[in-house]
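Q: What would this chain look like folded?
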Amino acid sequence: MSRDSDSMTRKDGQRLSKINLSNDEWIAIKQLIDVLEPFASATKLLEGSKYATISFMNNVITAIKNGVQSTQNVEPNIDFTYPITVFDDDIGIKDPDNDDEVDDHPKWQKILINTPQDCKDLTEKVKLALHTAINYYWIVPQNEGMIATLLDPRCKSLNFANESQKNQTKALFREIYNEKRQELSTIQQ
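A: My prediction, written as structure tokens:
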């Protein structure tokens, strides 16, 4: 970051170097940037568009899922109703020294930012958490999205889908088309 051509990125790199990031932490940051890049690309593609984007959703979600595919086959047990992050187990936290006082105010915990963090398998943990979250939150009727994609000239080839999905989508489209054609002929008679 300190050698980047963008001045804001260089300043951020200088600030980060002042808090003494270890080499492992820098490596983890670089790996996480690679993991998160598809999310940035998807956001850029879909944000503020002046055209319909539902046809891109299956393609984008498939690309993101493939990008966060972990080498570990274990699905983490994540409670999506509890606001905890993948990093919470790894952050060194120091409670305030005044444990004797009893008050109703929430206690803030200090994160020890100058203490090197354990970055072992951090990228895999993040990938697992992201993959699990995508599978949890992205439950959309597949058929409608695939039909929309098939009808969009920009992505109708369904390159992201396997042959079975392509054939199934085309068969579903023919079925819907024939139903609507039959309805129309009935109305016209």
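The helical segments are 7-18, 23-46, 54-67, 122-137, 142-151, 163-188.
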